[in-house]
């Protein structure tokens, strides 16, 4: 096989492989696991382009995105303003988990298990707080 044919074959195989994985799953991995919601028109259009050029891989891309839930727009809010989180800091600069849980439940309308033993706790530093415009109080 000549070199140009190998290059073209490799590019075609790569294009088909990308189509098989589903656009939403590649671009928005954080959306996986959603069961329902409003369909993201950008992801649907990209999957439809896959059907236009390669019928079977495009259908597989749609199936993967619907199966994983990556085709749906995220519902609600997933972030809280840093100023609001300032209320969860105690006078010694430590995070009060009860207050943090109450703030998150109020802002996100979700009850997050902050006392779960699998939760990983990491200590921050003043430069991380400064990036969000916060000042350490301790």
UniProtKB/TrEMBL annotation:
The keyword Transmembrane helix applies. The chain crosses the membrane at residues 42-64. Keywords: Membrane, Transmembrane, Transmembrane helix. It comes from the Bacteria. The keyword Transmembrane helix applies. This is Uncharacterized protein. It comes from Geopseudomonas sagittaria.
């Amino acid at each position: 096989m000549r070199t140009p044919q190998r290059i073209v074959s490799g590019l075609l195989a790569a294009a088909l492989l990308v189509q098989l994985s589903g656009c939403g799953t590649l671009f928005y991995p954080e959306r996986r696991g959603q069961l329902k919601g409003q369909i993201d028109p950008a992801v649907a259009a990209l999957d439809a382009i896959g059907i236009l050029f390669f019928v079977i891989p495009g259908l597989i891309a749609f199936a993967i995105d619907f199966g994983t839930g990556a085709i749906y727009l995220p519902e609600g809010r997933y972030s809280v303003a840093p100023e609001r989180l300032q209320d969860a800091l105690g006078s010694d600069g430590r995070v009060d988990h009860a207050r943090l849980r109450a703030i998150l439940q109020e802002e996100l309308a979700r009850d997050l298990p902050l006392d779960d033993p699998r939760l990983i706790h990491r200590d921050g530093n003043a430069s991380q707080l400064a990036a969000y415009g916060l000042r350490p109080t301790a």
